[in-house]
Write a structure and sequence with these properties.
Length: about 325
């Protein structure tokens, strides 16, 4: 792997502000970001990337390449929780194994956005329809995780309310806003982009940077929870993203994705949800321990991906595509 890519990635302002947030917690600074602001910024990021993706999708059209990419995204979102569940069952109970498997089957929009900024800095093009792949990978893992719970947790006392599960999977705020913005981008096209560009493009990088500052604060506070997860889960949180990215790269090569699209697809496969899936699991699988599935995704996999993972996956692509 090209070490200069890691150094270049670390020296990006958003990543440095992520470290600044972590440092603030470690040195016990009183730095705090009022709760509504990170929520507002996360909504802005989802709105911007969804809208841009819709505009790019209508420009590229629904081609065979687009359909293959979306089908591959859906397949990985279902496959990852299935195989990781049985790995996790080696050390964990059914509830925790299913919740963590669902977490790693879903995706992190912030990791995807960071990878997009990384590609932009390097001048590598990617297609806007990758946002549609992101949107499609949010929900299937929740459904698969709950099916696993019901298949393997025979003594579960609480009946599963599928209406609530489906509502959380498809209508939670992040999925709803992302898909809605994508559709509005499709409907308004270039005209809509020209109208909103100062807001959706000009502010994007600064908002991402400030959002990662908050993520650094949250991740550092979660590090204490890693004491409960043990070596097995910490190793899982680092190795499984690499394996999933490798599978993603193989699929991307097979269906002929460009370098930029392949990186974004591998990042989607390698990332883990720390917002949508934990919210769904907390409601529908209260028997699972949130400190396990949140801390592994947020305090280990997320920083690993934005610091080492993204440059590592790009190095793999450069090797395979050369």
């Amino acid at each position: 792997m090209d070490i200069s890519l890691i150094i270049s990635n670390i020296l990006n302002p958003p990543v440095l502000f992520f470290f600044l947030g972590m440092t603030a917690v470690f040195v016990q600074s009183d730095l705090e970001i009022p709760a509504p602001i990170p929520k507002l910024f996360s909504l802005y990021l989802l709105f911007s990337i969804g809208f841009k993706g819709g505009v790019e999708l209508i420009k590229s059209g629904i081609t065979q390449d687009v359909m293959l990419t979306l089908a591959a995204a859906m397949m990985m979102a279902c496959f990852v929780p299935l195989y990781t569940f049985f790995i996790l069952k080696i050390k964990l109970g059914n509830y925790d194994a299913a919740a963590i498997a669902a977490t790693y089957g879903s995706i992190s929009a912030v990791t995807f956005i960071t990878a997009s900024a990384f590609l932009t800095d390097l001048g590598i093009d990617f297609d806007g329809f990758m946002v549609a792949a992101l949107a499609l990978m949010e929900s299937p893992a929740i459904i698969v995780g709950l099916i696993l719970v019901n298949l393997f947790a025979a003594n579960r006392e609480q009946d599963l309310e599928w209406s609530e599960v489906l509502k959380e999977a498809f209508l939670n705020s992040s999925v709803f806003l992302l898909v809605g913005s994508l559709l509005i981008g499709v409907l308004t096209g270039e005209h809509g982009w020209e109208v909103l560009e100062p807001f959706t493009q000009g502010l994007f990088y600064g908002v991402l940077t400030f959002f990662l500052l908050d993520m650094g604060l949250v991740a550092a506070r979660r590090i204490k929870d890693l004491q409960k997860t043990g070596v097995f889960l910490i190793g899982f949180a680092i190795l499984i993203p690499i394996v999933n990215a490798g599978i993603g790269l193989g699929i991307a090569k097979l269906i002929g994705m460009s370098v930029g699209n392949a990186l974004l697809f591998s990042v989607l496969c390698a990332s883990a949800s720390y917002i949508a899936v934990p919210a769904a699991m907390r409601m529908t699988v209260p028997e699972a321990n949130p400190s396990l599935y949140v801390s592994t995704a947020l305090a280990v996999t997320f920083p690993f991906n934005i610091i080492v993972g993204i440059p590592l996956y790009l190095s793999g692509i450069e090797f395979l595509w050369s």
